[in-house]
Records
---
Amino acid sequence: MKILDEPKAIRLKIMDFLSRREHSSKEIFQKMSQRVESKELLEDSINELVEDGLLSDERFAESYFQSRKNRGFGPLRIKNELIQRGVKESIFNSIQADTEWSFYALEVLEKKTNGKKPEEMKEILKLKKFLNYRGFEFEDIDKAFSMLNKENL
């Protein structure tokens, strides 16, 4: 691996990463820290890209949020994953403010059960545990089960 020591080379490599997908500033720093001679040059390049609008934690968070939500993950898990990637909790809160999570929990529940209503308590508890693992809050899980029961009446 070639060690980068010029701002232009560092910027080009970061742009290469960004051309594939959005990244957070923290992710870029972690990926690039082994490839650069000076961490200060890397930080300067990252700050420059942020100022130019080419690197944005908000844009990364929106993209990541939509992707994970569409794959059936809940707010708790998505928030924790974003925080691990260096995104502020306030950014997550503003993105997910209008999301009705119980409907997404219901979608995941219906997909998991193939639309069948669980009968036994053991099965219900297993499904609730699954939804909790996926990052849904207990309130949304209970609403999803209520909606599932109403649909199957």
Note: Residues 7-20 form the longest helix (14 residues).
---
Amino acid sequence: MSVPGLKIRPVRDGDRDVLVEMFQGLNVYEETFVGNRRLDRVGGEDSLIYADKKVATSGGHRLIAEIDGKPVGHLYLTWERHGACVRDEVKDFGYVSELFVREAHRGKGVGRALLLEAERLTREKGFGHMLLGVLYGNAVAERAYDRFGFRPYATDLVKKLT
């Protein structure tokens, strides 16, 4: 599906405010599933700082999706390594650590375009697979990732302690 006016580009210095807003939007969206997100602007700022550090440490990529020059989503891609139990030839992978599309643009192919670019960058790096995480209960995202070709790999379980 082609999205008219869509462009995927690297994050620029002037994108900070819009990224804070989108990271805050991601926190608000994820709150529905996990009930532990920081919903204020400072939470968005801290989430952005944390994600930026992960990308910088791994040498990954920060991408913005824009339609007609207006940012509508982002994707952060890090380079990771599986542990000692994994064979050397498949140890390295791309990890989609952050993916967000503004509500008005969901279901129109923006997320798919971001994932295609992440896939291209991962192949260009010489890595044979990508991973990403989905919060339990986010069936819409699970279906979208399934359509893109992602399959379950691991399940994290949580037990709340009183």
Note: The longest helix spans residues 16-34.
---
Amino acid sequence: MMRSEQQYIDLFTAHHEALSAHSVPAMNALREQAFEDFCRMGFPTQKVERYKYTDVAEAFAPDYGVNVRGLAFPVNPYQAFRCDVPNLSTSLYFVVNDRFYDDETVKRPSLPEGVIIDSLSRVARERPQLVEPYYGRLARSSKDAINALNTMLAQDGLFIYVPRNLAVPRPIQVVNILRADVPLMANRRTLVVLEEGAQLQLLICDHAMDDHAFLTTQVVETFVGENAHLECYELEETHSQNHRFSNTYVDLSACSTATLGSITLGCGLTRNRTDVTLSGENGEARLIGAVIADGEQHADNNTLIDHRAPNCQSTELYKYVLDGSAVGAFAGRVLVREGAQKTTSQETNANLCATRTARMYTQPMLEIYADDVKCSHGSTVGQLNDAALFYMRQRGVPEDEARLLLKFAFVGEVIDSIHLPALRDRLHYLVEKRFRGELGRCAGCGDNMKCGGERQQ
């Protein structure tokens, strides 16, 4: 067996008692089985269809530290992070590495009665009936090696619960902060439960406070009840030494809706898997994504929309702008099962390679077993329009500025489809700064916080 797998097998064998001692029964119950599944599967090779564009074993080969004893890291994110989206008026929470940050000296945001946003392990300990029926139900360790590795190592995470017929009035903002003095592996777990008729807007931001190498596994399980509505946007602004593997699973009940957005503005290697199941009639799923990558960055989005019930609809729009020697990959599969009549689905992936050394792999897929459907898919890969560049330069626009404007307009369709006006406006600003190479250190954050604030002078 390769070293990539063996070091994690050795880690679990040596520290499984400590892993369990610093976690809770609901998470420990799946730990041993996840370990057996990981030993059986190992990391997927690029011969596995859903991993053909990312070398997983290579990404996991370095020796990262793992915080198996649950030690607290010396950081107060409420002081270190002040770059929230202006005018969004979010309720702000933090996850430091892979643990929910809770400081008794900091007043928590006010939430409607019954809404829970807390440490996953604490809720599992105090109210196991809210966690045990859901934890590990969608992200089965037997189906995916990243699920298995995360399940056998994760000790805490984030729990979000919205009770029946309740709408959370303000968007919830969760900031995932990576903080360490040495190379570190973090294993985050998130569980979101929206009961019947519930409504939630969620913004998740990924940042790295330090320039060390980080490896993150993240597994998110989301249950959206009947007539419930979820908007969830994820923004990644890390750095070139950050490797991130995120698996998101969403189950939509009858008449529910989910909008899932993924924006990558900075990364080293990022691989996002998003699986959405429309399990009840009249459900609607909407996936949007944008990637801006340059240098040696690698961004891979792999999606599955599983239509299991009739009269459902899904739309999917992902756009990439690649510069330098960046590598992008998109594989989107829409599965319409037998009996899922009256399905409507549209899948689009458009990509812009700004240099000859940038590479893009795209694979939109339709798999249909029903005969009364309206489904389409398409993809494009191209370079900047020479005619448009010539037109703009003839009218006095410098070439660099013309190129920037064309890139900005290209990705703007994704940003414009975001429903939160303050977030949409802020992302327009951040995307422009990203294209100008001006996303840097923030005067309002820690010394090395990578975020969307102003560059220090």
Note: The chain has one domain: 3-382.
---
Amino acid sequence: MKFRESEVLELKRSTSELKEAVTSIVSILNKHGAGELYFGIRNDGEVVGQLVNEKTLRDVSQSISDNIEPKIYPEIEKVNMEGSDCVHVSFSGDARPYFAFGRAYMRVGDEDRQVSASELERLILHKNKDRVQWDNQLADCSIKDIDASAVREFVKKANLAGRIDFGFQGVEATLGKLGLMKNGKLLRAAQVLFSSKNPVKVQAAVFAGVEKLTFIDIQQFEGQNLFGLLKDSAEYVKKNMAWRVKFGKLEREEIPEIPVDALREAMVNSLCHRDYGSPQSNYIAVYQDRIEIDNPGAFPENLEPEDYIFKNEPSIPRNPLIAETLFRSKDIERWGSGLKRIYDECKENGVKVEFRKMKSGFRVVFFRPKPSIETTQKTTQKTTQKILDAIRNNPLVSRKEIAGIVGITEDGVKYHLARLKKAGKIRHVGPDKGGRWEVLGRS
């Protein structure tokens, strides 16, 4: 039998490496909560054996007892491996974080790495999640602030998805069945999901280029429940990206430049897994070459997006009550599958996507296919013509009025007016307030 070190198995040549073994036990406990260790087997898997007597077993037990906090109670026994005596240590514990010689370690592959301050904080928060978990705390609003129609619609969706087996029974009773009440009081998860007193804001903007220099449009979505934020965010992106038409035998099909399902998955994940304790907003930024979706919620340390895409790493959601509720309505699938679903959808449609760990949170970047010159020109010409027509019809028209006529924001109007002035197609006569516009030439 050939042994191989892993995230849950450590091999030591002999008990002369007892200190290193204690560190390995702690790192495995902090990552997986249980594991095994052998003395008498080299790290390449070769069994070399060692002297094992009562003192040997007692020394191992004593070292573990004296140097690991909180205390654990492993099973330590003499075993015969390939004709040689070895020591087998089996251990487990659910009181993370664990410390060896006063320091915390985390298992990464077959290595033991010292835990950073932020990762240690995460372990402590996970240990005390029932007390400090944000969405499990009492809400800042009451039952009367819950949108009954939103709860009713959720129950309908969850029943159609086959993930609940009860109907709407009134707001309080239904939220209680969903686990969104505690001792008859509303939890923050319910506030975010079903109340307009949701503290989250989504900032959305369309930029003229590939940097945050000039924006054509900017919006802020707030004062609505999570489902409303998701709907408005999705509509905003769909409205501000390119679509092409494919004609079939009997009907036409509109195809987006970026898969809508992937975009929506990224947006719902950004709202589900954000750090609700952070005052930062969620962001949607539409550039000429890409669309970025940001959320304030640091990616788990010692893990990479690829771990969820290719290795099926299990997810520990930051807001489990919110995540569980969204799962029931089929707005998300099983925890940890979101990144893989985005990646697979984009790969199938030939769209490049990147997942970026940021200091302030996490970002999903969808790269837009390069639009044809003809498509770009037609879009610009259409907007320009509407603005020129509005000025011809009313030289005293304001930017706000033009925005209403054309269907873009005042900032977008300002951008296009500046371009037209620079091109010599229009001019403004008189003061900024009270002046008039003139169309020059035959534009």
Note: The CA atoms of residues 146 and 195 lie 5 Å apart.
